[in-house]
UniProtKB/TrEMBL annotation:
Domain Isochorismatase-like span(s) in chain numbering: 16-162
Alphabetical list of SUPFAM superfamilies matching this protein: Isochorismatase-like hydrolases
Organism superkingdom: Eukaryota
GO CC terms: cytoplasm; nucleus
One BP term from GO: protein destabilization
Species of origin: Otolemur garnettii (Small-eared galago)
Stretches assigned to coiled coil: none
InterPro entries with a match to the protein in the record: Isochorismatase-like_dom (IPR000868), Isochorismatase-like_sf (IPR036380), Isochorismatase_domain (IPR050993)
Protein name: Isochorismatase domain containing 2
Subunit comment: Interacts with CDKN2A.
Length: 205
């Protein structure tokens, strides 16, 4: 499948994968907007399942940080434990087994740690990275904002969940569109992003 020029950042179900990073119990009370972030990541997972986009799930040091929160709806995904601040070392076998892979959709925590380092590792492998900005957060909103700008400097694409979902489905005549419409009927919950972008933020000029 031709996905257009690489610089356009087109996303197609047959060449994409969803990465779900470290949405674990111990982070629940420390990450800004945790329930909202997880609910948006859960949307992405539901859409991925409808469109047969593979999804992978990691857990950072689960002995200490606990298991993936149930509201992500990730039953049936085998969580891969890791200690590295990147998902890529734990997933290199999966990555090598998808020769058609072109785009990685990235959700989870923390933006300045595992999300940033995963993005850099994926970009280094020549893959396109789409950071789902309303499905990524941090303990600190400054860390979150600067990490989003930092990934953009390295060539990652920043998008909202809805922007990516509609790109993936492509056409209102798609057989799964009615189901997907139910998922996005209510706008994604606010996770403070508007405040980060307001006032012509110099980081995003």
């Amino acid at each position: 499948e031709m996905a257009g020029r690489p610089s356009l950042g087109r996303v197609l179900p047959g060449s994409s994968v969803l990465f779900l990073c470290d949405m674990q119990e111990k982070f629940r009370h420390h990450i800004a907007y945790f329930p909202q972030i997880v609910s948006v990541a859960a949307r992405m997972l539901r859409v991925a399942r409808l469109l047969e986009v593979p999804a992978v799930l990691t857990e950072q040091y689960p002995e200490g940080l606990g298991s993936t929160v149930p509201e992500l709806g990730a039953e049936g995904l085998r969580p891969l434990p890791k200690t590295c601040f990147s998902m890529v070392p734990a997933l290199h076998q999966e990555l090598d087994s998808w020769p058609q892979l072109r785009s990685v959709l990235l959700c989870g925590i923390e933006t300045q740690a595992c999300i940033l380092n995963t993005a850099l590792d994926l970009l280094d492998r020549g893959l396109q990275v789409h950071v789902v900005v309303d499905a990524c957060s941090s303990r600190s909103q400054v860390d979150r904002l600067v990490a989003l700008a930092r990934m953009r400097q390295s060539g990652a694409f920043l998008s909202t969940s809805e922007g990516l979902i509609l790109q993936l489905v492509g056409d209102a005549a798609h057989p799964q569109f009615k189901e997907i419409q139910k998922i996005i009927k209510d706008p994604a919950p606010d996770s403070g992003l508007l405040g980060l972008f307001q006032g012509q933020n110099p980081l995003f000029r």
